[in-house]
Amino acid sequence: MTVTTGMDATSIALLEDTLRKTMASHSGPELDQALAELGWAEMLSDDPDLAIPLVFRLLGETGAHASVLNDVILETIGGLPGGTPPMPFAGGSWVIWERGEGNPDNPVLGGLPLRTVPGGELMRVGEARRALGWWLVGSARAMLALAREHALDRVQFGKPIASFQAVRHRIAETLVAIEGAEATLSVPVVESPDLTSMLAKAAAGKAALTAAAHCQQVLGGIGFTAEHDLHHHIERVLVLDGLLGSTRELTRRVGGGLRARRSAPRLVQL
Prior knowledge:
The chain is mainly alpha-helical. The chain has 10 helices and 5 strands; from the N terminus they run αααααβββαββαααα.
C-alpha cells in the first residue's frame, strides 16, 4: 500500500490498520524498511499533519521503534535523507538515533538505538518535539490499556479491583492527562510555534509519566516483573521524555521566557 495525500476517512482508517499490524510484527531496521515501502517519506513531505500524529502515536501504542524521528528533523531543516542529526538529551548531553540496531554495549537508553556524542548544534525541532509528544501519548495509552485490563481481570474480596474507588481514580486521572495532552498536541500552530511545541511536548511527557506512576500502582507487584509489558513502556517514556527537552526542562524554559516577557501570547482561541 502506497501512501498518498488527500486521503478520505476510510483510507486513513485502512492505513492505520496496516501500520498497526506492521508495527506489531516489526521493529527497528525492519520497521524502517517496512515504513519506507508504505511511502513514509512521501507522506511526511506531503502531509506531515497526518503522518506525524498517526505514525508516532502507533509507535507508542504498539511498543515498536523506528528511526523516523531523524526524518522529521531532516525534513524540517532541509537536511539530506538518511542522516542522523544530533539531538539534545536530558542533563545537557547529546545523542544520535542510529539507523540500525545500535550499540549493544550502550544499555542505558531504554532499548533504543541511541548513542551519545560529544555535542551538537541547536536547530529547529518544533515538529520533532510534537512527534515525540505523540509517541509519548501512544505509550501512555498502551500503559492505560494494560492497567485497565488488569483491573477488570484481577479479583479481590470477591469483586474486580476495577470496582474499587482508588483504582478508578488512578485510571481516570491517567485518562484525563492523556486527553489533555492530545488536545495540546492538536492545537493549530498559528503563532509562537516554538512555544506551542515546547508546551505540547511537556504536556505529553507529563501525561506519560503520570500514566507510568498510576498504572504501576494499579498493576501492583506484577507490574514490576520482567515478564509483564509495563516496564518496557516505562523505560521507553523515560527516554523519550528526555529527548529534545524533558518535561521539567521545557516547563522551566517556557516559564522563564514568559516571566522575562511579562506577558503570555494567546495560543488558542476559545
